[in-house]
Amino acid sequence: MLNEPVGTVAGAGALLAILRDGQARTRAELVQLTGLARSTVSQRLDALLTHQWIVPTEDAISSGGRPAVAFAFNSSARVVLSADLGATHARVAVTDLATTVLAERTSDLAIDKGPEPTLQWLLDTFLEFLDETGHTVEQVCGVGVGLPGPVEHASGRPINPPIMPGWDGFPVPKWLGERLGAAVLVDNDVNIMALGEHWAARPEADQLVFVKIGTGIGCGIISDRRLHRGAQGAAGDIGHVRVSSAADVVCRCGNTGCLEAVAGGASVAAKLAAAGVPASNSRDVVNLVRQGNTQAVQLIRQAGREVGDVLASIVNFFNPAVIVIGGDIAEAGEHVLAGVREVIYSRSLPLATQHLSIRTSELGDRAGVVGAAVMVIEHVLAPGTVDRAVLR
Ligand SMILES: [Zn+2]
User: Fold this and answer.
1) Is the pLDDT of residue 73 over 60?
2) H-helix or E-strand containing 309?
3) For an engineered disulfide with 308, which of 194, 262, 343, 365 has Cβ 3.0 to 4.6 Å away?
């Protein structure tokens, strides 16, 4: 028995996974749920209590005889630092382990200033937040960052990001990790938006596709309730899929015929400007749609159809339960949805569309910052990570 505790405590992460649903449970209930010996459950609970991952609840549960103490997940055990960095603005937050936002701020930020000034600003903002919310750097369990470009997932490095000069290959996790002493996870903005939306709005969906239509277009894929990043982290880059209506149109990637070149916010704004309607970006387009500008409404609906054309193939290939449309252009609401739905329902297989839900994002521009926190929480609270932490 004396040699056993290490192996016994090593299952603490799995026990914590049970308690993460927020329901408090007694020792006896956990013994029954896991089929483990009472002594094993006790040792694992002790390890989790020592590291403050769980707390005894105030209301003891009575089962006839002596009241028994129940244990609950302690979502305020640590804090998460989270950032969604876009091309021209950023949203930064500090959250608890249940993604409850403790402090949050949006700010103008030009990502093309390069990595060091941007990350220094981010670091300063994080430290201010910790101060404001009464936390220390030691309480930070991890940092999640979303970037507006392709990110190699294993290293957290941006790879040839088109709108981020100076960032190619920059070791973002190392730079922030050395200064904050915590794990740093980096992903592209669309992936974290998919994570955030799935977690907060559609946790029951096993298969979900989150489509961001902003200046550019991309999608994040949730498969079997997990983010599907692909071999290198490039999965979901639908903005540069070839569409027939864009045959001769040159895209910012250098190719011709890309979806983004005919349906992205920048493209729609350019078409409006060419028709004499003042618009220079996706926000202008959305404002015009809200004002009822006929040309803007028609163009946004057509952009929805173009996106729907590509999504119709994805629906046949991947059979998602939910498609969520997010990003700036999604603020145009029903007009863009109508175009997307029209093509998907006429082009995809009936079996694949029978129960398919197509809707706009519930989290809106907060999806990214919530998702960056989710990415960290899922990593930190993964059973293997918790086991390593309690054995340290
Ligand atoms: Zn392209």
Assistant:
1) yes
2) helix 294-318
3) 343
